[in-house]
Specification:
mainly alpha, disordered C terminus
């Protein structure tokens, strides 16, 4: 039982078998969705390790795939360094300078008021009074010194104190700068030239007011630190597939722990997010392909058997890609899937498969754009090379085209990536080998898929067209007239098929086998009777009709016996449709009981032709037989006969169920007329007297042999005078 037969038997046991093919489609979709997801997720479930921070590793741990991630420990250290380098933001407190100046003015006003008080005559009284006015502000020595200065000197001291305080307070003093500022202020005061007493007074007045007057702006400082952190590019690490993450004997660091976490190498760590994303990706790809078939290839979407084949080819392609990935991505013969699809389904489906296969293989190769381009463009080149109806060596040519495309793609992408020339040439050589391997693998898988899914490919048809096929050998030996008739019908059908968009190979091969049922009773058909008596002369018209029409059933039996494809069997069963055996019907109608004759009893069982190819063979069969019966064929007679046969089939409704148009019928008629006229051309009649005269005058050589020219002329004359004898001698030889 074929693969499809086993699949179909599962549903035939159910009450919803044949009525709900949607169930099959859903089952197929879910089946291959699960299979593809599991196959692609093997890299997402690597070997697990159990390591902790600071532990000594006992074996090399290798990255199972390429991954890029943010190194969080290094990024955190970099952020800390940047934050520490951001200076705090301070706001200048201008009120501190004003307050200091007010204090200086208060001190000197108090000194002037004490000195102006006439009631205070003694120095002790003045000092006591000043001490009460400036409680705790200044030292007693400073107060005594102030009372000793003149009014002019006091004004100068006050101005010097103000100037010193303004210089530093209006510029701003930070906490960390305070000691430096006080030292600098001392130097400035000493340069004023007041002597030891004046310097001491000024320092005692100004030093207490030299205080930090920058206030920390915490909000602005935090904002600047955040902005600095945002400007930092995170430290990213890219681990290549096969790169050693932790070497044997290393003490596991925080960075290495993060690497293993990103790779999903910890025990108990399951990348559920990645698995879910992969499942959605596969679902999207399969949904896209299903929508494509539904919209643009409805004949494929309606055929559950073909959908099963599509799913199987995709899965096999990914399995090949998975296996090839362990050795070399470029040597992987992944183009085998699109090649098989182009031959078994159609080129458009193959191009869609090439896109899906390239994108899914990209998951296996860590989204490597170079490899995705290699798979997609190489597969497309293979599909284009066999997109037309293939000949016997089409897969060999396809392999060479894929190899050439792979070489060009890998050279171009290698140059773009600025790779070393040696690496580019090595990859190109591997790609060429992968293209040839894809063709070889396709040749090996094709017969099994054809047999399992009962699909007729052009390669299989070309095999059936070989004259050494057992059934064609039987037809040649047992019904030679039918054999040569079938060859002529094949020539007509193939020539016309190429012009109207039908399959020329199927038309030719179908014509070769359309009359194989005549092997059962060859001499009941006029083309095989030669000079023997026609057996129908002794039979009733109804019996003759039964014998003649039975060659359809006999032909179908031979198709089953020799396991011919369904497409050929359909042509065998449809090439007469439900047409009338007009000769025997007319004979019966003119007989003694003609009024009792029922026309349906003299018609073939059918069905009518369902395809262009079957209809072509019906028309070619009728036209070839009718033209053969013309006594002296010429172009007018052949044209009238061909047009009559085509119009009769059209009026009889034999072409109602196929896709032929009136324009197609016009083209078919023109082609048949041209081919049949070239086949039935007139021949030169050689003069008999001239040949006999040459015979009398011919020179004899030493061995008594005739010249080659004389032999040819004599043979022609003998053939013209006695064709039956020549035919018998040819047959005996």
């Amino acid at each position: 039982m074929s693969l499809w037969g086993k699949f179909d038997s599962f549903f035939t046991d159910s009450s919803v078998a044949r009525q709900h093919s949607t169930i099959r489609k859903i089952v197929l979709f879910l089946l291959f969705f699960v299979l593809n997801t599991v196959l692609l997720s093997t890299d997402f479930l690597p070997d697990k390790v159990s390591l902790t921070l600071g532990q000594v590793n006992d074996r090399d741990i290798v990255a199972p795939r390429t991954v890029s991630f943010v190194d969080e420990p290094r990024t955190r250290r970099l952020e800390a360094e940047v934050v520490s380098s951001v200076a705090n933001v301070y706001d200048l407190d201008t009120a501190a300078a004003a307050t200091a100046e007010d204090d200086v003015s208060r001190i000197f006003r108090a000194v002037r008021s004490v000195m102006a008080d006439k009631l205070l005559q003694k120095p002790e009284e003045r000092l006591a009074k000043l001490r009460t006015l400036l409680t705790g502000s200044l030292q007693d020595l400073t107060l005594v010194s102030l009372l000793s200065f003149s009014t002019a000197e006091l004004e100068q001291l006050e101005e010097n104190a103000r100037t010193t305080l303004r210089k530093y307070l209006y510029r701003g003093i930070r906490e960390e700068e305070l000691d430096t500022v006080k030292k600098q202020a001392t130097v400035d005061v000493e340069k004023l030239g007041w002597g030891e007493k004046g310097v001491a007074v000024l320092l005692d007045i100004t030093q207490p007011h030299l205080r930090p007057n920058f206030v920390l702006n915490q909000k602005e400082t935090d904002q600047r630190k955040k902005a600095a952190v945002k400007s930092i590019e995170p430290v990213r690490i890219t681990l290549k597939s096969g790169q050693i993450v932790v070497r044997r004997g290393d003490v596991v660091t925080e960075e290495q722990m993060q690497m293993m976490t990103e790779l999903g190498l910890h025990k108990g760590q399951v990348g559920t997010g990645r698995i879910f994303g992969l499942a959605l990706y596969v679902l999207l790809m399969m949904g896209l392909m299903s929508a494509y078939f539904y919209r643009f290839s409805p004949e494929v979407f309606a055929d559950d058997r073909r959908l099963l084949l599509v799913g199987l080819v995709i899965f096999v392609t990914l399995v090949i890609g998975r296996i090839g990935h362990f050795y070399s991505d470029f040597a992987t013969p992944i183009a085998v899937g699109p090649l098989l699809m182009a031959i078994l389904i159609n080129p458009r489906a193959a191009l869609m498969l090439a896109i899906v296969a390239a994108l899914m293989f990209g998951l296996i190769t860590d989204q490597n754009l170079r490899i995705v381009s290699f798979v997609l463009l190489g597969s497309a080149a293979g599909v284009f090379s066999i997109s037309k109806r293939p000949q016997g060596n089409s897969l060999v040519k396809a392999g060479l085209w894929i190899a050439l495309a792979n070489i060009l793609i890998l050279i171009c992408t290698g140059l773009i990536d600025e790779m070393e020339y040696q690496k580019i040439l090595t990859d190109a050589a591997l790609g060429a080998g992968g293209g040839i391997a894809a063709a070889i693998l396709s040749i090996g898988l094709l017969p099994y898929l054809e047999q399992s899914f009962r699909i007729t490919t052009s390669e299989k048809l070309l095999t059936l067209a070989r004259p050494n096929h057992p059934l064609l050998q039987r037809l040649l030996l047992e019904a030679p007239g039918t054999y040569y008739h079938s060859v002529l019908v094949g020539n007509l059908a193939e020539t016309a098929a190429d012009q109207i968009g039908a399959d020329p190979i199927l038309s030719r091969v179908g014509a070769y086998y359309h009359d194989v049922g005549k092997i059962q009773r060859p001499y009941f058909f006029v083309e095989n009777q030669a000079n023997m008596e026609n057996p129908h002369a002794k039979l009733s018209p109804s019996l003759s009709t039964m014998i003649v029409t039975s060659h359809i059933r006999d032909g179908l039996e031979y198709c089953r016996e020799y396991k011919l494809p369904e497409a050929i069997a359909d042509i065998v069963g449809q090439h007469h449709g439900t047409s009338l055996a007009s000769y025997f019907y007319k004979q019966a109608a003119e007989g003694e009981h003609g009024e009792c004759i029922i026309e349906e009893d003299f018609r073939y069982e059918g069905p009518k032709p369902q395809t262009k190819e079957a209809a072509l063979i019906m028309l070619a069969d009728g036209c070839e037989a009718a033209v053969r019966s013309i006594a002296k064929p010429n172009m007018n007679r052949i044209e009238n006969t061909v047009r009559r046969i085509i119009n009769e089939r059209l009026r009889d409704g034999q072409l109602n169920e196929c896709d032929l148009t009136l324009r197609d019928l016009k083209m078919i008629g023109d082609i048949f007329i041209r081919v049949l006229c070239s086949t039935c051309h007139s021949r030169i009649e050689y003069p008999a007297e001239a040949i006999r005269e040459l015979e009398r005058r011919r020179p004899r050589n030493g061995n008594g042999n005739k010249s080659s020219t004389e032999k040819s002329l004599v043979a022609m004359e003998n053939k013209r005078d006695n064709p039956e004898r020549v035919a018998k001698s040819s047959g005996s030889s």
